[in-house]
Amino acid sequence: NSLLLYVQFSPAILKGRNVRVKLRRVDSRDPAHCPRARGTGTRVLTAVSSDRAVTRCSAMALTSSAARPYHIIIFGASGFTGQFVVEEVARTSAEGPRGAVRWALAGRSRAKLDKVLEQASEALGKPELKSEVDIIVADVGEPDSLAAMCKQGVIVLNCVGPYRFYGEAVVKACVENGAHCIDICGEPQFLEGMQLNYHSQAADKGVYIVGSCGFDSIPADLGVLYTRDQFKGTLTAVESFLTASTGPEGGCIHDGTWQSAIYGFADSGKLRSLRKKFDHKPLPVVGAKIKRRSALFFSDEIQQYSVPFMGADPSVVKRTQRFLAEEHNKTPVQYGAYAGIGGITSVIKLLFAGMMFWFLVKFSFGRNLLIKFPEFFSFGFFSKEGPTRKQLEGSSFRFAFFGEGYTEGQDPSQGKPNAKIRTLVQGPEPGYVATPIAMVQAAITMLNEPNSLPKKGGVYTPGAAFANTTIIDRLNNHGIQFSVLEVS
Fold first, then answer.
1. Model pTM score
2. Counting C-beta atoms within 10 Å of the first and last residue's C-beta, which end of the chain has fewer, N or C?
């Protein structure tokens, strides 16, 4: 039975129009109807006009995104990285629209997700998490469960990797069911493949798919944009140098990242063929062309031996620069990415491990060995257990950016660059402290600043998606700090 009433809403809501109001009792087991009413049988008040519907749940006015029960759903929350993303969302849940983020965990095993909530509540001293945060059972191998999950969330934080195996199903479900998606992928083949295959569909649906929103590649991508914005003139080239440090407990990386690297190098030929499908014209080189460094060199900039950075950063930064050049007529910045490895002892270890890796990764048997014994083949740098909390507390990273360009009034086509800038992005342990911070702040930014995103949905890099937002300020407030060191 329903009760029909005729009421007059305030002009601020519907400009004085009469609207029909229907009170109806909903199934309390279905959270899609009312996020605050689960288990209570609370009534939902729905006002319908010829222009739009205004919904109130438990007498609380919701934002336009609140037609869905959750602002954020963390998919893969019971994974090694996912558990830290859970803790970060819990820390920052007051930063959402109107001061509160409604969120849920999702994954294959309810028991494991319950355990993650219990651990997070103990680690943060928030026992209320166990009763306030909901759980959704979903599996990448079950499309219907993914669709049901995506229909309930505004943003899905996808923590399930390797993405080359498990990521596309999530992207597809998000696009088809109207949920935005943020991931922490460091695999160029997956990232570029999703842009090729889903950008148009996402644009048509108004869905934003933003990849590489973890340590790969928020610091690098936004670091280049920050350097450009702080440069007075035309910035034409940037080189970045990554260094990481650990405390007395040492440090390591969970072997999920190791597996992604193994499959990425094994399929490098597929990445080259994928890029040909874009049929991109080369971006114009503005100013002096940046020089490529050798495979191993001593960096005067950071005073240690360095190698080209083998992760997703170069791919992501170049895609951002293309977007900004083609869509916003910005001067494309040339980019080179490098990582410091330390002294001669580290060089010897790297050469030995690198030779074994390159030999074994070419063969199925070799890849199986690499996957089975990550600690042995990486000299302890990767492990199946991952780092301890004490190791995380003692670790940090520094991204130094060295930019050059032309001061205002100077013609970049004439002569060498006449100005330089040095900036720094630094923060806590990169993989499991900085990555959750970056991922969650990307989601918080998307929720709070929708009008600052690109005009259309699509598959974007972090720099393309967030160039006009306050995400750098948000990251600064959460321990990933951007600063200018020198301008000359």
1. 0.85
2. N
